[in-house]
TrEMBL record:
This is DUF1501 domain-containing protein. The lineage of its organism: Bacteria, Pseudomonadati, Planctomycetota, Planctomycetia, Gemmatales. PANTHER family: BLL7424 PROTEIN (PTHR43737), DUF1501 DOMAIN-CONTAINING PROTEIN (PTHR43737:SF1). It comes from the Bacteria. Pfam families: DUF1501. InterPro entries: Alkaline_phosphatase_core_sf, DUF1501, TAT_signal. PROSITE patterns: TAT.
């Protein structure tokens, strides 16, 4: 039986003139194809950095049977998932454990903040100097179809833990067009400040619409009346249209909602991140700085770097202690996950909570003589939720003291490949300047954590 004739391709239709006979043009056909593509459910991402490195033993991977000098004072508590237990300072996340997955076997060899952060941002153990951050890659490959930025960064890295160059704010090799819009340039520039306004749009209202239109026309003329590039068109839309300015106005949220997330930098940044997802922003990076207690003097936004060197016991309730920071993080991240779920957004929004490494199993004394844990990249934990991640899953295992990986090690490459896959990007996609040398990620996605996409 002969095979049925194949349908003509678009190229065949153009070559034979059938498009014109049907009253169609190639631009119209391309526009229709793009519209169909845009109607597919778009994925979004909120990447939360526990800058400084969270202790895995006191959070996602408690070891209640370890010696006292290792296990710390916190007891494990049950979660919504039978058999999964977490540290007692995370009761709200514990109640939502069916909505997220935990990786207990993250590993790499570098115990130095700035380099490890560069590695995490690039998703590579040996990143090149101009390797773009994860968010810039998503902005390049999956730009937003809305009139909002593709990529936003909430709360700038600060202190010695910052990456050794500002690649994460420049777009790296992908260029400034794929750099994030930065909100929160310093510790006293944050959304928890009463009356805070995002300054990215300041001055727009002072420029008459006719003047803006004139500048747009002039640029067209200088370009020989060629159509605006997509990036320039979006830039004009951002400064003249209300969509982005409205999305960034967190004071439109009721006080009750703001309090649900927590009236601190992390809580308010995560609330804004939810607003940005609703507006169409593709990826929002959030530094998990939980702020200061009343009357505390500013030290650093490296909340999770809990050596005890700042004079705050890792098990204490100062700005650099788990007793203060982890409950705030628990409240904010749980509120985000619940809010996204209640609004029907979690299925299409990937939420990540991870630091550049973990902390040593053995409790030490910091420079000021109080308890701390030092840097430990050999084995640490991460949390993933939404966008097809299997809720309630636990992947990998550590040894009896959470010092080394026992089962299923996860490299930064594997982690990034998993994130890209969840967001609809094939990790094998070539994105290097020459177009073929390097894939987006050289890792393997963790299929056990991802729902079937058949």
């Amino acid at each position: 039986m002969p095979a049925p004739p194949s349908l003509p391709s678009r190229r065949d239709l153009v070559r034979t003139g059938i498009l014109s006979a049907l009253g169609l043009s190639l631009p119209n056909l391309l526009h229709a194809e793009q519209a169909r593509a845009n109607r597919r459910r778009e994925k979004h991402c909120i990447f939360i950095y526990q800058y400084g490195g969270l202790s895995q033993l006191d959070s996602w991977d408690p070891k209640p049977h370890a010696p006292a000098e290792l296990r710390g004072p916190y007891k494990p508590i049950a979660t919504a998932v039978p058999g999964l237990r977490v540290g007692e300072l995370m009761p709200q996340l514990a109640r939502n454990a069916d909505k997220f997955a935990v990786i207990r076997s993250m590993t790499h060899p570098v115990p130095v903040h700035d380099l490890a952060n560069k590695m995490l941002l690039a998703g590579r153990r040996t990143p090149a100097g101009d390797d773009p951050a994860f968010g810039s890659v998503i902005a390049k490959l999956k730009p937003s179809v809305a009139r909002v930025p593709d990529y936003v960064w909430l709360q700038k890295f600060g202190g010695g833990a910052a990456p050794p160059d500002p690649t994460y704010l420049t777009g790296g090799a992908l260029g400034a067009a794929h750099a994030p819009l930065l909100v929160g340039n310093s510790h006293d520039d944050n959304l928890a400040t009463p009356g805070y306004k995002v300054r990215a749009f300041e001055g727009v209202g002072e420029m008459p619409p006719a003047r803006i239109a004139g500048r747009r026309k002039l640029l067209n003329e200088l370009d020989g009346n060629n159509p605006l590039t997509p990036h320039r068109a979006k830039a004009f839309d951002l400064i003249t249209g209300p969509a982005a300015q409205k999305a960034f106005d967190i004071e439109q949220e009721p006080l009750k909602v703001r309090e649900r997330y927590g009236l601190n930098p992390l809580g308010q940044n995560l609330l804004l991140a939810r607003r940005l997802v609703e507006a169409g922003v593709r990826l929002t990076s959030v530094v998990a700085w939980t702020g200061l207690k009343p009357r505390e003097k500013f030290m650093s936004i490296e909340t999770w770097d809990m050596h005890g060197n700042a004079g705050v016991d890792i098990f204490g309730d100062g700005w650099n202690g788990l007793g203060f920071a982890l409950p705030r993080c628990d409240q904010a991240v749980a509120a985000l996950i619940e809010d996204l779920s209640d609004r029907g957004l979690l299925d299409d929004t990937l939420v990540m909570l991870i630091g550049e490494f973990g902390r040593t199993p053995r409790i030490s004394k910091g420079a000021t003589g109080v308890n701390g844990r030092d840097h430990w990249p050999n084995c640490y934990s991460a949390m993933l939720a939404g966008a097809g991640v299997r809720g309630g899953a636990v992947y990998g295992a550590s040894d009896s003291t959470a010092a080394y990986v026992k089962d299923d090690p996860v490299s930064l490459e594997d982690f990034s490949a998993t994130l890209y896959t969840a967001l609809g990007v094939d990790p094998a996609t070539r994105l290097s300047p020459d177009g073929f040398t390097r894939p987006v990620s050289t890792g393997e996605p963790i299929s056990a954590l991802l729902e079937s996409r058949g």
